Amino acid sequence: MQQNRSRRPQFASRPEGSNPNVTSAIGMEETFGRLRARRSSLFTRTVIWLTGLVCLAFLLATFAQAWSNSQLVARVQTAQQQYQQVQNQNTQLNALANHYKAPSVVEREAREQLGYIRPGEHPVIIISSTTPAPATIPRKAPPPAPRNFWQSWWNVFFGG
Description:
Blueprint: H1 2-7, H2 20-26, H3 32-101, H4 103-114, H5 149-158
């Protein structure tokens, strides 16, 4: 045990030439152990602060990523809703187009809305005294067929 004590460096508890009462009273003595403890404490505090800052940076980055993801999810949901609406509208328009492609619908619309009749049919218009007469579109008689080539040119340029 004596050998271990002799290996340790011996430090004076107070500086040389100082009054023992004054230095002890104000705590001026600095031993090697205290100096080492203070250095180790400063290093520990620095490591703890740096670790805390790194953890805080990771935490903030995680929150930023979560917020960004929520914004993207909201945009995707909005786009999906718009896509669904456009798809529904497309389905309705396709059904309507298929409806109007049927020859019976085309004929009915031509008769009701445009007043067309088939060749050889005679239109009958019934007018009742209680309801107003629907507005009829007067139909022009087709112009007589031109007799020859020169007469058709004459009619084009001079009206006839």
